[in-house]
Design goal:
The protein is of the alpha+beta class and 114 residues long. The chain contains two helices and six strands; from the N terminus they run βββαβαββ. The two termini are 15 Å apart.
């Protein structure tokens, strides 16, 4: 079985594809925005990566959302609900976590089928 590493670097790869499955973690690029905007941005980045590898959000199997502030849960959900593929919602969990960049309000890890 082939393992394809997307944009590999010394410390990490942008994404990994193995056995028709995509593994990816998205962080927002708009770090001066609120949690809803950061979530929407991180989700758009997921869309771009999935398109790049030949998949899309309807094929996401599992999502883990890391939020710095529990109070941002409703804002994150507004962005998620506007984005998620109708009828194709993945398994999802949301955890409160301290993220490495102090400007991150959200980070999203996904596993998707090709």
């Amino acid at each position: 079985m082939t393992i394809t590493r997307i944009d590999p670097e010394h410390r990490m790869s942008e994404a990994v594809v193995h056995n028709q499955t995509v593994y990816y973690t998205s962080v927002p690029e708009n770090l001066d925005e609120d949690a809803e905007a950061q979530t929407a941005n991180a989700l758009a980045v997921i869309d771009a990566l999935l398109t790049r590898v030949g998949s899309d959000k309807s094929k996401i199997l599992d999502a883990t959302i890391f939020l710095v502030e529990k109070s941002d849960f409703p804002a994150m959900n507004r962005a998620w609900d506007a984005w998620v593929s109708p009828g194709n919602a993945p398994v999802r969990c949301t955890v409160q976590a301290g993220l490495m960049n102090p400007k991150y309000k959200v980070e999203i890890k996904i596993i998707a089928a090709l």
